[in-house]
Amino acid sequence: MIDNAILALEALMDPIRLLALLGGMAVGMVFGMLPGLGGVAAVSILLPFIYYLDDYSGLAMLLGAVSVVYTSDTITSVLLGAPGSPASAPTAIEGHALAKQGQAARALCVGFLASMVGGLVGAITLFFAIPIAGPIVLLLSTPELFMFALVGLFFAASMIGKDLAKGLAAACLGLFLGVVGPASAAADFRFTFNQVYLLDGFSLTIVALGLFGVAEVISMLAAGGGITQKRMTVGSWNEGLRDFWDNKWLILRSSIIGVFGGFVPAVGASASTWVAYGHAIRSTKDKSRFGKGEIKGIAASEGANNATVISDLVPTLLFSVPGGPAAAIFLGALFSFGYYPGPRMITENPDLMYLIVWSVALTSILGAAACFVITPWLARLTSIPFAIIAAPLVLVMIIGAYQNTSTMGDIFMLFGLGALGWTMKQGGWPRAPALVGFVLSGPMEQYFWLTNQIHGWSWLARPGVLIIGSIIVIPVLVSAFKWIRARKTAVPATSNSAAEKESAADTDDSNRSIALAIAIIASVVFVYAAWEMLSFNPSSRLMPALAIVPGMALSFWLVLRGIREYRSDFMRDGSELIILAVLIVYSIAVWAIGLSIPTVALLVWMLLVRAKMRWWTAAIYGAVVFAITLLLFNVLRGDAPVGTIISLF
């Protein structure tokens, strides 16, 4: 084993291969920082170039790109609140809250170091676990895989926000979005409304950018100023280093969670990150800071999601079952170079296995170091008027969304889901459970259908299912017991405590009337979906029913509760609604007359009206942004939207 590892390290140190690794790392860092692009886009861009290299160099280039995406997307998650992937959502929630408090450097420091540790733990674990990884994965059958995904979804729904009902309803909404399109178990197209665009379902990139990216842009543009109101400079890393050292065991435990989560095909980082985040909450005495800027949340999530980078490759290498989209592209590259993944690969190509270990370990260290170098400049972006940053950010999100089908449906859906994300934010519905539910809907449906086909309903009594299910049931029972005991021992409220409660209600950052509107809309959607579901084949109803039935019940409950708590506060500030309207009008204009003129108009509005730049600096900056936008369209797709009206002439 040691001899093979040394030979693999010597092979990687070849100048051409090392340069290929560093080149892939640079591309991965750039794409990780661009919302909506991430690892899949990075390896897709590099794929045509690897065939000009030898097998080790080409694979090292892909590994360099994949290994640093979760490290560099920490920057976007913290500074802009737009997660580069569902696994980065906890970092966006906690890190962006810290950035708004002027503590972006602290959040970034812990995120980079936790990412490095996660990558190293994953590499070290795989180094020693290569011979036994196959049997570990084979111990998990479809019932256990389904329950593991359900645990990840429950943690996402219960750990964000103060309202469990809203969290679970949001998770059901995400599952519902995930079942739109073709059914995996029967010849059904579900909830497509006879629209060709919906035949393939929703794009993960568009859902993530819409729910988080567009919604955050609207809020920050309306607020004016920068992400934080005071200029932030990075003079010392001491506070972040202290936080990292104080949470070293949490990061290590979270990394181990990420490693084992990565072994599960198609679930990986999305579920394991939320399990690690939930572990951070449960292991912390003071839980009040979570969701408002808790450094432990960043430490746990970044340690877990980076550890999955290498463990995602275990099912890929041993069973030809990709752990995720980027792993699927890596699998195709292996086939192209003449490698055929399977259990025998450990004995037939051990040098390649250890090349993967060394590549991930090296780029984990170098990627974190590179992020530290550029952070002092990037952190200063938090004090720049956000309208200046918003102009290129919106265009990058449009480019990222447009990669799905290269039709106007991508842009319409981006801003439509952006409106949904903004509404959920205003109404106090957590968006992270919806995103995680969307991601997990595909693998959950496969596991759920196979489980019922093979085991019927007897799978509910399997020991593994009961053990995994207890992770959900026991905390719920404990919380219910504490709630009942608190009600029995509660003392009558004094006038002061009543005043405090009323004050807390006034400062509640969710809008009650918007929350009620969301609950009503969700109830209507779920009722219609339940009626529509009756026309599907029985096999196609399983997963929609899992989303619709509890979602309908929760929505009804939220409607009744919302009516009782209703207060007339429909809009505290109409500027956010104006910004949302501008973005929707922009998407319609692009559909009608193409990209160029509406984009120029959008840049003028953002830079001159919102950012209040001088006309000559706005002209120079806008021209650069517009040119880069056209360049990205040419590089990634070749054609920008032309416009329906223009194409008629």
How would a crystallographer describe the biggest sheet?
A: 2 strands, antiparallel
Number of domains: 1
**What percentage of amino acids are in beta strands?**
under 5%
Distance between the termini: 67 Å
Tell me, briefly, the overall form.
globular
Q: N-to-C SSE series?
A: HHHHHHHHEEHHHHHHHHHHHHHHHHHHHH
**Helix share bin:** over 70%
Structural class: mainly alpha
Total DSSP E strands: 2
Strand order in space, largest sheet: 1-2
Low-confidence stretches: 491-509, 567-573
Computed over alpha carbons, the radius of gyration is: 24 Å
Continuous helix count: 28
Mean pLDDT: 77
Overview of the molecule:
By secondary structure, the protein is mainly alpha-helical. It has one domain. The protein is 75% helix and 1% strand. It has helices spanning 2-12, 15-33, 38-50, 55-80, 89-100, 104-138, 142-159, 164-179, 204-223, 238-246, 248-262, 268-282, 295-311, 313-319, 325-336, 345-348, 350-379, 386-402, 408-427, 432-455, 463-489, 495-506, 512-533, 538-565, 575-593, 596-610, 615-636, 644-647, and strands at residues 181-182, 189-190. A two-stranded antiparallel ribbon has the order 1-2. Helix 4 runs antiparallel to helix 13 (295-311) and helix 7 (142-159) runs parallel beside helix 21 (463-489). The longest helix is centred in the first third of the chain and has 35 residues, at 104-138. The termini are far apart.
Please outline the helices and strands.
Elements: H1 2-12, H2 15-33, H3 38-50, H4 55-80, H5 89-100, H6 104-138, H7 142-159, H8 164-179, E1 181-182, E2 189-190, H9 204-223, H10 238-246, H11 248-262, H12 268-282, H13 295-311, H14 313-319, H15 325-336, H16 345-348, H17 350-379, H18 386-402, H19 408-427, H20 432-455, H21 463-489, H22 495-506, H23 512-533, H24 538-565, H25 575-593, H26 596-610, H27 615-636, H28 644-647
Antiparallel strand pairs: 1-2
Helix pairs in contact: 1-17, 2-3, 2-4, 3-4, 3-15, 4-5, 4-6, 4-13, 4-15, 4-17, 5-6, 5-13, 6-10, 6-11, 6-13, 6-14, 6-17, 7-8, 7-12, 7-20, 7-21, 8-20, 8-24, 9-18, 9-19, 9-25, 11-12, 11-13, 12-13, 18-19, 18-26, 18-27, 19-23, 19-25, 23-24, 25-26, 26-27
